Amino acid sequence: MRQRVQWAMIILLVLGTVAGIAADSSRLMAEIKASNRAQTWEFTIPVRYFPGYNVDFDGGSSVDLNDDLGWGFGFGYNFNEKLNLNFEFAWMSANYKATFASAEAPPIADFTASGTYDASSSTVNLTYYFMPKTFTPYISGGVGWTWIDSNIPVGPPQGFCWWDPWYGQVCSGYQPTAEESGWSYGFGLGVRFEPKESFFLRVGANDNWQDFGGHAGTTDFWSYRLDLGWRF
User: Fold this and answer.
1) Per-residue pLDDT tens for 156-211?
2) Cα atoms found within 13 Å of the Cα of residue 155, Cβ hemisphere only
3) Cis (ω within 30 of 0) for the bond into 107?
4) What are the phi and psi torsion angles at 96 (to 5°)?
5) Could you tell me the pTM of the whole model?
6) Using one digit for the tens of pLDDT, what is the confidence trace for 66-97?
7) Are 7 and 109 in contact (CB under 8 A)?
8) Rounded CA separation 112/102 (Å)
């Protein structure tokens, strides 16, 4: 069911993009106002929906990620009406179920555990708008760094103390957890609409590849997004 919904949304976005490009020379496009976004800065608040995914790891282990919403903010610059460079920071927190496979010979039964993982990413994106209009399809590509914390403890609690000039001795501690970080890559497509002089909306889909190291290789994740943006 997830795959059907995913591909249906992708096909609709592709058809919308192709239709928008094909209509560029039509009288309808001539009636759409020209944009004046060239040489302007932008601030965006992206809202992203991540469908659930199952990621297979070495030895038969796996992680079933629940669907959830992600948030973020970004800053960008329009070099001209068609080319934009954007930096984006995003984060999310979602539930998951992990399956642990036996490494014994003969193997024993698998067992599962549930938890919540935190993920954040910093990405640089280059976006191309097909038309210098207030309504236009776009494509984008980006590269960044993603950090994931499973919140699974990997050691005993650790702490440290210090002498504060105002409060005296102060102690603090933290719990080390299993973390993973690595390069991420992606591309996106969608449409942009500018209903106001300084406000715009973007609706699209992104396919991102996340490098999990040698345990799972590089896995791709589709997500769907709504960007609220202000130009200045």
Assistant:
1) 777 888 888 887 888 887 767 777 788 899 999 999 999 988 999 999 999 888 87
2) 10
3) no
4) -150, 165
5) 0.77
6) 889 999 999 999 999 999 999 999 999 989 88
7) no
8) 11
Which has the closest alpha carbon to 49: 90, 110, 86, 108? 90
Domain count, the chain: 1
Query: Is position 161 within any domain?
Result: no
Whether 183 is in a domain gets the answer: yes
Residue 52 lies in domain: 2-151+178-231
Cα–chain center distance at 202:
15
CATH number at residue 200: 2.40.160.20
Q: What is the C-alpha to C-alpha distance for residues 218 and 103, in angstroms, rounded to an integer?
A: 23
In a domain, 158, yes or no: no
Q: Is 138 exposed, middle or buried (0-12, 13-18, 19+ CB in 10 A)?
A: buried
> How far is 188 from 15, CA to CA, in rounded Å?
14
- Is-contact 71 46, C-beta < 8 A? yes
What whole-number distance in Å separates Cα of residue 25 and Cα of residue 228?
Answer: 28
Instruction: Please state, as a whole number, how many other Cβ atoms lie within 10 Å of the Cβ of residue 139.
Output: 15
Q: Residues for the chain: how many in total?
A: 232
Instruction: For residue 64, give Cα distances in angstroms to 90, 135, 198, 216.
Output: 21, 38, 41, 13
Alpha-helix runs per DSSP H in 26-167: 27-31
Radius of gyration of the chain (CA): 22
In angstroms, the CA 49 to CA 15 distance is: 21
Q: Which two tokens stand for residue 84?
A: 């934009």
In a domain, 171, yes or no: no
